[in-house]
Design a protein that fits this description.
Elements: H1 2-28, H2 34-43, H3 48-58, H4 63-70, H5 76-102, H6 111-127, H7 131-136, H8 138-143, H9 145-163, H10 170-188, H11 192-211, H12 220-237, H13 240-247, H14 254-267, H15 279-292, H16 300-318, H17 333-348, H18 357-397, E1 402-405, H19 421-435, E2 438-441, H20 455-460
Parallel strand pairs: 1-2
């Protein structure tokens, strides 16, 4: 028993240290492409409202993107605070996913229940696709991490309100209605894949209520949440900026769409054949089953709800049918989260958490992996930030009509986002138009090459 407690204490300390390092890592992630486009848009508008209107008309109707471009990038202090807050957002996302999975067991604070929650959180963190883009990079954060938080909050509120056995008092109901409408609106206006996920989730719950003939028992609070969601979805879908972006893309034929979607869906949980081929996703799931599976879990309610989350997961992938040009590993972000909720629903819903010493060992090993990855990411991000600072110093000091800047040579970690050389070249073209002189890559002999600097190796041989 003493060894188990020591394992737990070590795990919690390692995890706490990892959170600090992850916050620092987010701080050092440089601004990339879309970040600068947003900043330039702000500089060309008179105030926050004008900037929001400009983004809505010309870029997107996603509310988190508009808020990020209008407020976070408007002042260095706001940007710094938001970067540090990203680790808190990750905790919110994991907590909401856990509540959606386990329901009333969320308030179980026994040692093994806390272990299960932390292990689930770390495994889902390690399984998330391209976290460098979807979590750490500010523009990607507003398009993926924030929307899934709003979407999960909508689903958690729906779950709470639909399962409530007692009605809320009149005064409390009146006070909560504006909040519920706002949260529904935020979910609906956050991201197209989240809209589809929430719609499928709501339809399945409504069908179950209709089958049980208890639709009338649903409280007014839930309907207000639902109305807010649909108003938000209408706000996003009606944005002219969505169609401005689509108009510049070549529309694929039906056969091409079918081919792309077949390949996409079949490889979605394998990182579309990139990165680590989905190994973190499936290793995490296998570990959860190895530690917590019990034959007594094969209950109809558990299986039915797990199937619902699997449907939600696949639905987020089908959302890409009208926009197959946008298919990339990051678009599987939501599907992986809902897949893990399905697994946790099957394993943990309404059950007593098993007391197994091996859980403590698994927790320790996983927390060590999170710490090592975070440390490697921090070192890589510091190196990349240094290179970008050097590049900007050269640009700011330039007095001629043409100049060259070095490639970003650091090999990125799993938590470091930089563009490919081709994408970086396109950004330099846009930058040239902004600064008034031509900026190109330095391709001379002896100049740094892309992905040629390994920061850990450089530290080793200092």
């Amino acid at each position: 028993m003493k060894k188990t407690i020591n394992f737990d204490v070590c795990s919690y300390l390692l995890l706490a240290l990892s959170c600090v390092i992850l916050a620092a890592l987010s701080y050092y992630q440089p601004k990339i492409s879309d970040d600068w486009y947003m900043i330039w848009t702000i500089s060309n508008t008179n105030n926050v409202f004008d900037n929001c209107v400009s983004v809505y008309k010309n870029w997107t109707g996603r509310l988190p993107v508009m808020v990020l471009s209008s407020f976070v990038f408007s002042h260095p202090f706001y940007e710094l605070a938001y970067r540090i807050f990203i680790i808190v957002e990750v905790f919110f996302m994991i907590s909401l996913a856990w509540y959606c999975a386990v329901g009333k067991s969320f308030l179980n604070f026994s040692t093994v229940a806390v272990q299960s929650f932390i292990l689930f959180g770390m495994l889902i963190w390690l399984a998330l696709p391209v976290r460098s883009e979807t979590v750490v990079w500010l523009s990607g954060n507003s398009a993926y991490l924030l929307p899934v938080i709003f979407g999960l909050f909508y689903m958690a509120c729906s779950k709470l309100l639909l399962e409530a056995k007692t009605s809320i008092g009149l005064m409390a109901s009146i006070l909560t209605l504006p909040f519920l409408f706002l949260m529904g609106f935020l979910a609906g206006s956050s991201q197209e894949q989240i809209i589809v996920a929430c719609v499928i989730y709501s339809l399945i719950n409504h069908y179950q209520r209709f089958r049980l003939k208890n639709l009338r028992s649903i409280s007014i609070n839930y309907w207000i949440l639902l109305i807010g969601f649909f108003v938000g979805a209408l706000f996003l879908i009606a944005a002219p900026g969505n169609y401005v972006r689509l108009s510049v893309m070549d529309a694929p034929g039906l056969i091409d769409i079918a081919k792309r979607m077949t390949l996409y869906i079949s490889s979605a949980f394998f990182e579309i054949g990139t990165g680590e081929l989905g190994k973190p996703i499936w290793m995490g799931i296998l570990l959860l089953f190895a530690l917590f599976y019990d034959k007594q879990l094969d209950k109809p309610d558990n299986v039915r709800e797990a199937k619902m989350w699997l449907c939600v997961s696949v639905a987020t992938l089908l959302t890409l049918i009208p926009a197959t040009n946008q298919i990339s590993p990051r678009t599987t972000f939501f599907a992986v989260i809902f897949l893990y909720i399905a697994v946790a629903t099957f394993l943990f819903k309404d059950k007593v958490f098993p007391k197994r010493a091996i859980v403590s060992l698994a927790l320790l090993v996983t927390s060590a992996l999170v710490l090592v990855e975070a440390t490697v990411g921090l070192i890589a991000n510091i190196s990349v930030a240094s290179e970008f600072n050097h590049r900007w110093a050269l640009i700011n000091a330039n007095q001629s009509k043409q100049m060259t800047v070095p490639f970003i040579s650091t090999v990125p970690s799993n938590l470091t986002y930089i563009q490919t050389p081709e994408q970086d070249r396109e950004f330099l073209k846009a930058l040239s138009a902004h600064v008034g002189f031509k900026v190109e890559h330095d391709t001379s002999e002896g100049a740094p090459l892309p992905a040629s600097l390994k920061p850990l190796k450089a530290i080793k041989f200092q």
